[in-house]
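REQUEST
  id: r-88c1
  op: predict_structure
  target: Glucokinase
  payload:
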Amino acid sequence: MIIAGDIGATNVRLAVFDDNLTILDQHLYKSQEYKSLQDVVRQFLENTKYAIKAACFGVPGPVKEGKCKLTNVPWEVIDAEILATLIDSPVSLLNDVEATAYGVETLRDDELVTLNIGDKLSGGNRAVVAVGTSLGEAAIVEVEGKIHVIPSEGGHSDFGPYDQQQWDLLCYTQRDYKRVSYEVILGGQGLVQIYNFLRDTKFKDSPQLLEQNLQIDDKAAAINQAAQGSECPICVEALRLFVSILAAETGNAAVKYFSTGGIYLGGGMAPRILASLRQPLFVENFVNKDKMRNFLQSIPVYVILNQYTGLQGAAWYAKRSC
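RESPONSE
  id: r-88c1
  status: 200
  body:
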């Protein structure tokens, strides 16, 4: 059997898969309640009856030589060798978006929503742009029939404004961030940052009920809900600007990775704003790259609906590594 893990700033999901990549057992743990991933895995092993032959974990940070210094979890380092000793089997670490990219291989057609049909090239490069707590990117390449994922920290590349409004957003954001990356604008609090910018520079006010919700609820979720219901002009504009910038960066990834096989929007945020992504605004900003416009029109774009894609990708990778 295989252990696969999806490690996040809030939750750790661990599961046992069989050789058909069917889940036999799984548990969810709160990251903040444990001092290390070893502690989580140790508790998981105490409650599982299966013999494990391999394990793989998707982790939120860059992986170098089997180690990962985490970016959004209060643990020092995750070390594959230490985990291998604990589990008594080979252990692989993947960046979390890298795991999601491998998970693309496990998805059914009904777990994808097409935003741009394009003209998919069999065997062509593919890419994943994952928008959630952070913004992550990875490329999928096929070499002699074998799938390889190239991880990246592309979300930390500099935000490139397209028009005056986006320039103003950059200047506003530099009050808090000297250097503004795409992750700052499109990560978990990106929608909140855009909302604050519009409230403070354009609308000068917002509904009292929304402001109350922003004090007690998930701020991004509250803004998204108000935008989807057209209850708040600021929220509608904030989501429109967010989608425009996300589309532009998705187009950047498509041209950087030459994604003739398609590009996939993953992470927890994309399904929650699906109605907005399906509007013409997204594709218009995705293809808006001057000389690359015709090329981008041919690139299929999909939204991943399966929230366990990263977990499945870790299991897929562990099985291949056995």
